[in-house]
Design a protein that fits this description.
Blueprint (H helix, E strand, L loop, with lengths): L12 E3 L1 H17 L9 H6 L4 E3 L4 H47 L15 E3 L1 H17 L5 H5 L5 E3 L4 H17 L2
Antiparallel strand pairs: 1-2, 3-4
Protein name: DivIVA domain-containing protein
């Protein structure tokens, strides 16, 4: 994968060139080194990476699209490593466990799906997260279409006493893994 991306125009804030280049070099090295199935950079690492902003940096849209594609490649490699080691049953058990964890969390009453932040901090808007939870349940229970892009592109307004971001993000990771698993 080339690490050359379009630069932001008019000196607008965009991703740090040095950070993007360094991370992609590390990911490329890990991919080449891990051809045997040893995983040092994971799909989750690619999903969680963030970069500082700088004027004239790499276009976030282009970098994010490349990271999304790379995440899927690493995910498939992780899947194949698990299957190689434990067979299809090991993989199916892992996916079933994630589906069960998501269902258990989303079975909670709305406005109480996740722990809330304290009075002095903000978290994710509860109504927006609850709406996403309904979409995820419709996907799991009724087969309603939900794509990885739908989940990756979700954003929530901040809200005082909102849901704790780390808990919501963890669930989102599971949902992405589930969707990628059934492709």
């Amino acid at each position: 994968m080339s690490t050359s991306f379009p630069r932001s125009k008019d000196k607008k804030q965009a991703y740090s060139v040095s950070q993007v280049d360094a991370f992609l070099a590390e990911a490329r090295e890990a991919y080449n080194r891990d051809a045997a199935g040893n995983v040092s950079v994971t799909a989750a690492d690619l999903r969680r990476i963030s970069f500082d902003l700088e004027k004239g940096g790499y276009s976030a849209r282009h970098v994010d699209a490349a990271l999304d594609r790379l995440e899927e490649v690493f995910f498939e490699r992780e899947k194949q490593a698990i299957i190689r080691e434990g067979g299809d049953e090991a993989w199916n058990t892992l996916v079933a466990d994630k589906v069960s964890a998501v269902r258990e969390r989303l079975a909670r009453p709305r406005k109480h799906l996740f722990a809330r932040t304290n009075i002095l901090t903000t978290g994710y808007n509860r109504a927006q997260v609850d709406a996403l939870a309904d979409r995820v349940l419709a996907y799991l229970d009724e087969g309603v279409s939900l794509t990885v892009a739908d989940i990756r592109d979700v954003s929530f307004f901040p809200e005082t006493r909102g849901y704790r971001e780390d808990q919501v993000d963890y669930l989102i990771d599971y949902v992405i893994d589930i969707i990628l698993s059934v492709r």
